[in-house]
Design a protein that fits this description.
The complex is a heterodimer of chains A (about 80) and B (about 350). By secondary structure, chain A is mainly α. In chain A, about 45% of the residues lie in helices and about 10% in strands. Chain A has 4 helices and 2 strands; from the N terminus they run E-H-H-H-H-E. A two-stranded parallel ribbon of chain A has the order 1-2. In chain A, helix 2 crosses helix 4. The longest helix of chain B has 30 residues. Chain B starts with a helix and ends with a strand. Classes of the chains: A mainly alpha (about 80), B mainly alpha (about 350). At the A-B interface, helix 3 of A face helix 8 and helix 9 of B.
């Protein structure tokens, strides 16, 4: 089975464009705003998962676990 | 040193050559390549100096104008790359810097509220929450000076979402003030913590999403206008902001000496300053009781009427529109308290 990779250094926009399922997972984790119409292509270009986690006070480990459960591999990015 | 001089002379020679070619009828595109090659990695400043030297030597201003087209065509992208201030938010007086200054002051005020809350100091809490209300001015500037530009650039969702949260903060602060006036503290604790959290999150969004978005899109003259109008709307928890004087050349997006600017006067360059119009300032009316803020904008942000409830920006009515036939923009009026 091909494992999917989440690069934490990429913007949310880049990640979700490649794989729309990521948007659903992020919304479930509490990142509501990026699911709003028009946000992904605008605010999403400046947002990374680590930044969003800091902002929303969501534990990065919880995020990693949620992605792992869906078969994703999390790759540490530069930011 | 002599190599520098040689290079300078070489570049002046190239410029003369290119002007000659333009004169002979070559198009901007044709000379663009040569220009780019010769001036790759060279600062726009040096190019300006080269042009200035030529003008001093007697180059007609009209020729300089033609060069401006090439210059702009070649450097539209790279002027920003070469000359982008390290970070506009570090320039004192720049609206981005002011926004951050106000945020730092807001963070201090949040600490003051938290401290009063922890000590169950009702008086202290009343005072610190009252002071925190200056955030209204901070949000007002953001909504009326910054958002219209984003909307013009087609970035419509983030302003709407942020404005919604701004209104939630305002509503919450009003409610808390009401509770505290009645001496009520116990029920307010959770509300206070929630609003402080929202404000903190908004500060993060402003500095990590809003500012980078604006910095990416706005021109220097647009920022300048925002700086001027910010002064009129007032500041939040900070003292006077020194006047910011961007280099005039930067405003045109083309670093040309004053002779060129004279040549351009009266001619519509059709550049960014023309295309992107922003808010214009405000009028005083009714002896200052009600202020009208005419702003140019495309269908976009709805304007706030004092006392109007609701955090849904969609529901707020327009308070009046003007023809705006020339530019195709409408003028909407904003009423604010005060």
């Amino acid at each position: 089975m091909k494992s999917k990779i989440i690069d934490l250094g990429q913007t949310v926009y880049e990640l979700c464009m490649k794989d729309p399922e990521i948007a659903d997972i992020l919304a479930e984790l509490g990142f509501w705003d990026i699911t709003k119409h028009g946000m992904l292509g605008t605010a999403g270009r400046f947002m990374t998962i680590p930044k969003g986690a800091r902002m929303k006070d969501i534990q990065i480990d919880d995020i990693k676990a949620a992605f792992a459960r869906r078969g994703y591999q999390v790759k540490e990015g530069l930011s | 040193m002599s190599e520098e001089i040689n290079n300078r002379e070489y570049r002046q020679k190239i410029i003369k050559e290119l002007i000659g070619q333009l004169h002979q009828g070559k198009s901007v595109d044709e000379v663009k390549q040569r220009f780019a090659e010769a001036f790759e990695g060279v600062s726009a400043e040096e190019i300006s100096q080269a042009e200035q030297a030529l003008i001093a030597d007697g180059l007609p201003v009209t020729e300089v104008q033609r060069l401006c087209d090439v210059h702009a065509a070649v450097f539209k992208g790279s002027i920003e790359n070469i000359h982008r201030p390290a970070d506009p938010a570090q320039i004192v007086g720049h609206p981005a810097h002011t926004l951050k200054r106000e945020n730092r002051a807001l963070e201090k005020q949040i600490e003051a509220v938290t401290a009063a809350l922890e000590q169950s100091d009702v008086q202290g809490l009343k005072q610190s929450i009252d002071k925190l209300w200056e955030i209204d001015r901070h949000y007002l500037k953001k909504e009326n000076l910054l958002f219209p530009y984003l909307e013009q650039y087609g970035i419509t969702a983030p302003p709407k979402v942020m404005w919604g949260v701004d209104d939630e903060v305002r509503a919450a602060l009003k409610e808390i003030k009401g509770d505290l006036a009645g001496g009520e503290l116990s029920g307010s604790k959770e509300k206070i913590n929630e609003v402080l959290h929202k404000i903190g999150e908004m500060i993060f969004k402003e500095e990590n999403i809003l500012l980078p978005m604006l910095i990416e899109n706005l021109t220097a003259d647009e920022w300048k206008r925002i700086a001027e109008e910010s002064g009129e709307l007032g500041y939040c928890l900070i003292d006077e902001v020194p006047e910011w004087k961007p280099a005039v050349q930067e405003e045109k997006g083309c670093q040309l000496p004053s002779a060129c600017k004279r040549a351009h006067r009266g001619k519509d360059r059709g550049g960014s300053a023309q295309r992107r119009k922003g808010p214009r300032g405000f009028l005083d009316q009714n002896g200052g009781k009600v202020r009208l803020y005419p702003v140019l904008c495309r269908p976009g942000p709805q304007w706030r009427i004092p006392g109007s409830a609701g955090s849904d920006p969609e529901r707020r009515p327009h308070t009046g529109t003007d023809g705006g036939k020339e530019t195709g923009f409408g003028i909407k009026h904003l009423y604010i308290e005060g």
